[in-house]
Design brief:
Layout lengths: L1 H18 L7 E11 L3 E2 L8 E3 L2 E11 L4 E8 L2 E7 L3 E9 L2 E7 L7 E19 L1 H5 L2 E6 L2 E13 L4 E10 L2 E8 L2 E8 L3 E10 L1
Antiparallel strand pairs: 1-4, 1-15, 2-14, 3-6, 4-5, 5-8, 6-7, 7-9, 8-9, 9-11, 10-13, 11-12, 12-15, 13-14
Bound molecules: nickel (II) ion.
Nickel (II) ion binds next to loops.
Length: about 210
């Protein structure tokens, strides 16, 4: 009887070791806070210097499929980010919204049963801007017709999953996205275009479910 118990305990330990796995064929769904911190630089705006773009935090979602125990494909989605845009001398003059979906190829370090699975990814980011408006300050300065060109660029990420049990995990990841755009607007009726690099760091903290 004692041998049977030991046998069962060993079997249970083995089962739980292999069950806490990131392995080929798994889907991982992660959700959490995603903070976009632009590292912006732009051309000179009407002789007043470059644009400033503030931070925003939204709900970030990632969907991952593990092709092998170590290679994954991931799609990043989020609720729309909203940023204030300003100039040093004027303060905020406009607000914009954007969605930055990204498709990543990933490498997960370690082996399927490991609790900690750090990973690196590289991929493509598409960012579309919409709901772009000058605020009262901008309009008072004679600015109108704001639009931002969509952007295609490279994205990189580093992340860490900690497997809590067979299905649940805790995740943190940081992304860098090469997002460049042309900011177009009219100043006193004259068309302007200012090349702007937003190039944000994105910090995500969340929980994940693997199945
Ligand atoms: Ni850039």
């Amino acid at each position: 009887m004692k041998t049977l118990y030991i046998g069962m305990a060993v079997a249970a330990a083995l089962l739980s070791a292999t069950a806490q796995a990131h392995q080929a064929g798994d889907f991982i769904f992660r959700a959490g806070s995603a903070t976009v911190r632009p590292d912006e630089s732009s051309g000179n705006v009407l002789g007043l210097g470059g644009f400033n773009v503030d931070n925003d935090t939204q709900l970030g979602l990632t969907f991952t499929y593990l092709v092998t125990d170590n290679i994954g494909v991931e799609l990043l989605a989020a609720t729309p980010f909203r940023h204030n845009v300003g100039l040093k001398s004027t303060g905020d003059i406009a607000s914009i919204k954007h969605l930055p979906p990204s498709l990543m190829a990933q490498y997960y370090f370690g082996d399927a049963p490991d609790k900690f699975r750090p990973y690196l990814g590289v991929g493509i980011n598409y960012t579309t801007f919409y709901d772009t408006h000058f605020n009262q300050t901008g309009r008072d300065a004679g600015l109108s017709d704001l639009s931002l060109k969509h952007s295609w660029g490279i994205a990189g990420q580093a992340g860490l999953d900690y497997n809590v049990d067979d299905n649940w995990l805790v995740n943190m990841s940081v992304w860098y996205m090469d997002i460049d755009t042309d900011v177009r607007f009219k100043a006193g009726g004259q068309q302007q275009s200012v090349h702007t690099q937003i190039d944000p760091w994105v910090f995500m903290f969340g929980v994940g479910y693997r199945f």
